[in-house]
Task: structure prediction
Amino acid sequence: MYSRYNILAILYCAEQSECAKNIPWPLADKVCRHIGINAPDFERRISIKMEKACIFFTDGFEEIEALAVVDLLRRANIDTDMVSITGRLDVTGSHGISVHMDQLFENVDFDSVTLFLLPGGPGTKDLEAHEGLMEKLDAFYKAGKTIGAICAAPSILGHKGMLKGRRACAYPGYESQLEGAYVSYHKTETDGNIITARGMGCAIDFGLAIIEKVQGEEAAKELAQAIVYSCD
Result:
């Protein structure tokens, strides 16, 4: 019977042809030594490789809320794409900062996406008005995949009834739109597969909450320490 780490090693080697030629079998600890990491780190590496995040942009997005999250997820080695819903690869934020996207909404392979993320800002209303994006959001919610929203964007989830019976937070003044939620005033809230945050000043906490959700508390703490950030 293969152990958990044996199976992880097989998955890893399937993607690493040079490594696969020389891996000593069958002991997983030998495999881990061969690639220079211990077994728990090995498991984390495999889990990271399986995550795919998309954060959706339209004109008027809040720059720090979006880009801080992209930065943190990429630092955590989570494959993260900036996706434009405008039909253009260059999108301009609410403070006049233009950003070149990784791809257009129409070209996203949603079958590979595991994290669905919505920034806030004045562009939130355009995110909610995009029928294709909302259809995909509904599908993610139904499938129980991880959804994150910050600032005004949690209101989109509230309007769809996705926050009923959950703890959730949003930008001050949007609490009434978190329909059915137990409204929180914490920087972030994670309840099941949904992560919400209050605003720009909570963007790092939001990014770290996403990392904690998919990689665990220790990974989030390590990254916070690496960027000299205190969650207190």
About this structure: The longest strand covers residues 52-57. The first helix runs from residue 4 to 15. The two ends are 45 Å apart (CA to CA). Residues 5 and 100 are 40 Å apart (CA to CA).
